[in-house]
């Protein structure tokens, strides 16, 4: 395998001025790590391609996807989709060692690619896989990494401006990696929108060897136990979400949220205190430290709308707040509000929908 | 067995207020806590020590007052505490933080015995990056196990560890060799109530305090602001939406009428929702929806 040139970090003070060292000047193009475990591409990768496209166009460079996997067959569909969702180029690393995600070989594959082909920007999903990989890759390359960004842009000097929540979500900050390359960022699922799919679009594929055998990898995957379909909360990708908060007053009353969700074919979730109280499981928490959602309709019953909750739901098309307090913070970002007791409104709403839907279905 | 748990002292951000005019953080009087995610790591470490014997060292990098967090960790049962504190560390981002902690971990290894396991929390509530753990692992060449829901097996003699790791869409059962870096998933355990003896011991214990030089760090350009490739250029408040929520008029209406009014308003604003609900209702044919 060709020995990749070792990138040296800038010497001395990082500084707040842009003084990109010469050996980084050749770094060009925007890359997105395509996450494809068990055949399917994680939608966050497409969302990143959408965002990456804008950055690449602004910079006047190419957008590339990086696809890693165990066999050509296993990644064929992912490669096709990467083009169809916007990439000009796809880099692939294929080796049986990469069949399951493991930190060691994936870090090696990614850092070798970066050192060889030198992208200026590298985006990853802030999923368990993406975060596991991003930290290792950034440390190996000794470059800057901004995690969980909510907005990405290119500034006047051509640098990546990565905005993320800070101080527990109460403020936003914009972070730059001025003098190191690549500029790395992760983005959580559903924070960015999905691009249009251009059926049949193709482009250049560049394959790179892994250069590592199974014997070189210490960590072994003994088993993969897929989540049961029924247990999985599909909150991030649900079209309709109904959620409850402390205003429901008891775990028993939370059933009212589930009832409404059942009639609407919705996913249900809640605010963080409900997880802490054990009313709902952790994977149903909505907000900054839970799931980010982007549904067509979000109904929030008895939720005050704290900033940490707000950042997780702002991508919803239509937000309905059911709250006894007309001045609750949620009124600042909801579209519709019912100022009343959620414990009474929820069953009435469930019944109204049930009636309406059964009557219209019979008629239709 | 020697286990080190990296913890961070964070402001209890539930209580952080932003000055409405100047837009700055009002930190005065905000109480600090141990980053809640780190407590899952600490508890797991204590359980392993109780089972296999050995010692648990807690390590933090921070200002002198971060000593409070270390003493708190000792009240839960940690045996030793190391505080890495120096003005050279101010302004560290994740890369600089993982450098300093990795150096301190080397020194801990030399002085108190090589750790078999280094724990960190899944992420912190103030930085929230989840990157420091993997950074430490890479620098010390530890095998990396993140988002661990359960340590199912540990064999100190064979130097192997088997864990259940939360992956996308399932659980990965991984086996690897010690030494490892583990980040624990939240909810994987519950921090114990410390004993009275531990509380007394914590109050009197000597916290080991190291400056950068004490920890053997020679290259100060890798620390703090200077060692941080990322630069925070701007801090600001999120834009308020210009429009407030439109309240459904509820005066003199029964609950049923209110519900009806909301449904009408929803379908008027977003007509495709009705079709979506109906399609779902059709799949439920013969089940409860049909008999409404
Ligand atoms: C670092 C950090 C991260 C966090 N991450 C998250 C996160 O990811 N997600 C999250 O949700 N929170 C998060 N939080 C917590 C957040 O700050 C709030 O404390 C939490 O969202 C409040 O939950 P709530 O709205 O259910 O409860 P409350 O704030 O207590 O609000 C209850 C609401 O119910 C209303 N109410 C009362 N009675 C009724 C009734 N009968 N009918 C209708 N309404 C009623 C009240 O008017 C009030 O508005 C985080 C906090 C911190 C510090």
Defining traits:
heterodimer; A: 364 residues; alpha/beta; Rossmann fold; 2 domains; seven-stranded parallel β-sheet; five-stranded parallel β-sheet; 8 helices; 29% helix; 24% strand; globular; disordered N terminus; B: 292 residues; nine-stranded mixed β-sheet; two-stranded antiparallel ribbon; 15 strands; 26% strand; disordered C terminus; binds flavin-adenine dinucleotide; ETF_b (chain B); electron transfer activity (chain B); transport (chain B); Protein FixA (chain B); electron transport (chain B)
Indicate how many domains the architecture of chain A comprises. Answer: 2
CATH superfamily of the largest domain in chain B, by name, is: HUPs
List ligands, each type once. Answer: flavin-adenine dinucleotide
Tertiary shape of chain B = globular
In helices, the fraction of residues of chain B equals: 25-40%
Give the N-terminus to C-terminus distance of chain B in angstroms: 63 Å
Describe the largest sheet of chain B.
9 strands, mixed
- The tally of strands of chain A reads 18
CA radius of gyration of chain B is 25 Å
The level 1 CATH classification of the largest domain in chain A is: Alpha Beta
Q: Estimate what percentage of residues of chain A fall within beta strands.
A: 15-25%
Question: Any idea what the CATH architecture of the largest domain in chain A is?
Answer: 3-Layer(aba) Sandwich
**Largest contact between protein chains?**
A-B, 110 and 95 residues
Number of strand elements of chain B: 15
Domain Electron transfer flavoprotein alpha/beta-subunit N-terminal (chain A): 30-221
InterPro entries (chain A): DHS-like_NAD/FAD-binding_dom (IPR029035), ETF_a/b_N (IPR014730), ETF_a/FixB (IPR001308), ETF_alpha_N (IPR033947), ETF_asu_C (IPR014731), ETF_asu_C_CS (IPR018206), Rossmann-like_a/b/a_fold (IPR014729)
Binding site for FAD (chain A): 271-272, 285-289, 302-309, 323
Keywords (chain A): Electron transport, FAD, Flavoprotein, Transport
């Amino acid at each position: 395998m060709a020995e990749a040139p070792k990138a040296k970090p800038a010497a001395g003070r990082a500084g707040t001025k842009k003084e990109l060292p010469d050996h980084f000047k050749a770094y060009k193009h925007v890359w997105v790590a395509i996450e494809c475990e068990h055949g399917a591409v994680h939608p966050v990768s497409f969302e990143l391609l959408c965002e990456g496209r804008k950055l690449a166009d602004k910079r006047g460079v190419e957008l590339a996807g990086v696809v890693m996997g165990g066999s050509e067959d296993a990644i064929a569909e992912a490669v096709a989709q990467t083009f169809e969702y916007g990439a000009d180029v796809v880099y692939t690393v294929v080796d049986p060692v990469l069949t399951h995600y493991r930190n060691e070989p994936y870090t090696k594959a990614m850092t070798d690619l970066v050192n060889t082909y030198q992208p200026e920007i590298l985006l990853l999903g802030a999923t368990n896989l993406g975060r596991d990989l991003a930290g290792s890759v950034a440390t190996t390359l000794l470059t800057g990494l901004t995690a969980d960004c909510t907005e990405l842009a290119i500034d006047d000097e051509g640098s990546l401006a990565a905005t993320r929540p800070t101080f527990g979500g109460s403020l936003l900050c914009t972070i730059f990696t001025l003098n190191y390359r690549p500029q790395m960022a992760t983005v959580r699922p559903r924070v960015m929108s999905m691009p249009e799919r251009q059926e049949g679009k193709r482009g250049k594929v560049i394959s790179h060897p892994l250069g590592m055998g199974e014997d070189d990898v210490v960590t072994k995957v003994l088993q993969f136990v897929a989540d049961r379909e029924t247990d999985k909360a599909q909150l991030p990708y649900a079209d309709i979400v109904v959620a409850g908060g402390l205003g429901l007053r008891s775990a028993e009353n939370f059933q009212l949220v589930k009832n409404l969700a059942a009639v609407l074919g919705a996913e249900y979730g809640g605010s963080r205190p409900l997880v802490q109280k054990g009313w709902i499981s952790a994977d149903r928490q909505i907000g900054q430290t839970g799931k980010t959602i982007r549904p067509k309709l979000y109904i929030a019953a008895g939720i005050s709308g704290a900033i940490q909750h707000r950042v997780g739901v702002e991508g919803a098309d239509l937000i309905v707040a059911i709250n006894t307090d007309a001045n609750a913070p949620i009124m600042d970002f909801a579209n519709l509000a019912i100022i009343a007791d959620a414990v009474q409104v929820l069953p009435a709403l469930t019944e109204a929908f049930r009636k309406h839907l059964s009557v219209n279905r019979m008629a239709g | 067995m020697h286990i080190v748990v990296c913890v961070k002292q964070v402001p209890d951000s539930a209580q952080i207020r932003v000055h409405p005019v100047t837009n700055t953080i009002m930190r005065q009087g905000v109480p600090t806590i141990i980053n809640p995610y780190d407590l899952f790591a600490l508890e797991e470490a204590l359980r392993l020590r109780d089972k296999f014997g050995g010692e648990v060292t807690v390590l933090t990098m921070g200002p002198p007052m971060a000593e409070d967090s270390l003493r708190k960790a000792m009240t839960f049962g940690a045996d030793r505490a190391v505080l890495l504190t120096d003005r050279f560390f101010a302004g560290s981002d994740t890369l600089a933080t993982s450098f300093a902690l990795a150096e301190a971990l080397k020194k801990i290894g030399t002085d108190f015995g090589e750790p078999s396991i280094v724990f960190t929390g899944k992420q912190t509530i103030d930085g929230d990056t989840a990157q420091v753990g993997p950074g430490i692992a890479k620098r010390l060449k530890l095998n990396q196990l993140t988002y661990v829901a359960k340590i199912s097996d540990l064999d100190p003699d064979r130097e192997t560890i088997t864990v259940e790791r939360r992956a996308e869409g399932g659980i990965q059962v991984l086996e690897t060799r010690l030494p490892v870096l583990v980040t624990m998933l939240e909810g994987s355990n519950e921090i114990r109530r410390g004993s009275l003896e531990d509380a007394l011991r914590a109050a009197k214990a000597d916290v080991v305090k190291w400056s950068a030089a004490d920890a053997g760090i020679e290259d100060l350009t890798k620390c703090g602001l200077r060692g941080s490739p990322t630069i925070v250029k701007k801090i600001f408040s999120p834009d308020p939406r210009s429009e407030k929520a439109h309240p459904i008029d509820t005066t003199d209406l029964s609950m049923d009428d209110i519900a009806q009014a909301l449904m009408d308003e929803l379908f008027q604003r977003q007509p495709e929702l009705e079709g979506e609900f109906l399609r779902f209702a059709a799949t439920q044919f013969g089940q409860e929806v049909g008999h409404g």
